[in-house]
Amino acid sequence: MKLLLTIFAVLLLLTGCGAEDAPTYRQVSSDEAAAMMASESDYLILDVRTREEYEQGHIPGAVCVPNESIGSGELSALPRKDQLILVYCRSGNRSKQAAQKLADAGYTNIVEFGGILSWTGETVSGSEGE
Predict the structure, then answer these.
(1) Which residues are designated catalytic?
(2) The overall pTM is greater than 0.85
């Protein structure tokens, strides 16, 4: 009987963590993100690097909201929680963190595509578009 209770408790712990209910985001390659940008019309490109990194070179039309500022209140640059938001950073680490923070904040259509280091499309410098 003790063995059955132990097995039941272990199974309950493994299945009852609720991880499958945690808000999440999708991950795609930079090529897949570029294809989405070409085929979609209502999306926002989100650069989560620092302002200085953004001004050195970013994807045209991207909005800069540094990862460190996400999670500290409402984001005026991201007013619609259901809008397709394509998130990137330098190498993919901060974009994953930011994408999860956005999902946790109730954004429902987040796509993370890594870093600008793997981006083969056009980039611009300065504060264009903002």
Answers:
(1) 89
(2) no
